[in-house]
User: Which sequence fits this backbone?
């Protein structure tokens, strides 16, 4: 299924920290956008690339930069400012999402909100839009066979904090969303994938969420967190070229009971960070996936993650499109309960495994030597 030079590495860390709006006063989040939006690792593409691009163009010759040298600093928990509007029904929420403007803070009262919820409104760097609630505020999609529980459709600078999304075909989906934060949600009982960043969604932070019980409609599509799009969907979501959903940070999430990978990082994505997550692959199926993490993008840092129970390997890389699946770095990860390897590079390409990774069970740490 499923080098940028050293000066840029520092910019990545600063951008990801500022992204969460948690430096200092978290109630007045004012993230700084990445200094190099639109410049990232791997074969070139952009949202403006024509659908009629020359299919014979060899994009694999573009240089692949180094993965981030270290994760950005942990921004801590994002705090919601005082509510500008409080909602207590599905109709209230639908209106609030449709009318949202920069600086709004939408508070969800506890209760069940049944429907498929969407917004196309954006905040700004200095005035993001908050949607906040406790775990007892439940967005219920009404069924796992169709629709998104919550959809950011071209909506940027959002802060989604604390509530529950359940009972939809897909849980939370972001298309063309920049500088948004998805934090502390519970996403459960989902037909396909739990959280999906897609269609040039970049510089986002997915942190501290609980994602479980996915793949209820189709095991093959039951990923926990999904970044980018498969090549078969590039025409639909990225105008025929790579879906450059870049520089996203996936941090501190707990992902379990997924029929497919806990995290699927697609070809076309670059320079992201996957750090400090916990995976349980007990529910993986042969149709769904045989590892917790599948990396097909370029120049990702995969660090300090822990996983248990896998059908085959803990972490895998794959090359499914020319120029992709390389430059990824694995550090400090722990894999237990694997059948084959803790980390399997398929193929090796420019991927690197540090010797501080650990694996128990199966055939050992990796199919290649650590360095």
Assistant:
């Amino acid at each position: 299924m499923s080098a940028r030079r050293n000066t840029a590495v520092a910019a990545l860390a600063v951008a990801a920290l500022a992204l969460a709006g948690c430096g200092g006063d978290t109630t007045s989040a004012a993230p700084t956008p990445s200094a190099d939006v639109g410049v990232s690792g791997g074969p070139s593409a952009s949202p403006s690339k024509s659908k009629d691009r020359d299919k014979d163009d060899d994009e694999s010759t573009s240089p692949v930069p180094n993965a981030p040298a270290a994760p950005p600093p942990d921004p801590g928990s994002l705090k919601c400012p005082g509510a500008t509007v409080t909602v207590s029904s599905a109709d209230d929420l639908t209106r609030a999402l449709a009318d949202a403007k920069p600086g709004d803070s939408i508070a969800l009262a506890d209760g069940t909100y049944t429907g498929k919820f969407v917004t196309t409104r954006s905040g700004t760097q200095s005035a993001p839009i908050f949607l906040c609630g406790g775990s007892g505020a439940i967005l219920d999609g009404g069924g796992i066979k169709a629709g998104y529980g919550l959809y950011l459709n071209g909506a940027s600078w959002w802060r989604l904090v604390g509530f529950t999304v359940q009972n939809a075909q897909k849980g939370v989906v972001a298309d063309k969303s920049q500088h948004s934060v998805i934090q502390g949600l519970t996403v459960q009982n989902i037909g396909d994938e739990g959280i999906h960043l897609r269609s040039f969604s970049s510089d986002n932070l997915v942190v501290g969420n609980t994602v479980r019980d996915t793949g209820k409609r189709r095991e093959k599509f039951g990923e926990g967190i999904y970044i980018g799009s498969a090549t078969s969907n590039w025409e639909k979501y990225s105008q025929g070229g790579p879906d450059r959903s870049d520089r996203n940070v996936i941090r501190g999430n707990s992902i379990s009971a997924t029929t497919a990978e806990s995290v699927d990082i697609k070809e076309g994505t670059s320079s992201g960070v996957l750090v400090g997550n916990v995976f349980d692959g007990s529910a993986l199926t042969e149709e769904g996936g045989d590892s917790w993490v599948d990396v097909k993008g370029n120049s990702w840092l995969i660090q300090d993650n822990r996983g248990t129970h896998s059908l085959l390997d803990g972490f895998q890389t794959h090359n499914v499109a020319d120029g992709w699946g390389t430059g990824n770095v694995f550090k400090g990860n722990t894999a237990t309960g694997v059948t084959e390897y803790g980390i399997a590079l398929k193929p090796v390409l420019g991927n690197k495994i540090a010797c501080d990774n650990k694996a128990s069970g199966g055939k050992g740490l990796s199919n290649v030597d650590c360095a």
Notes: Residues 1-23+64-76+191-371 form one domain.
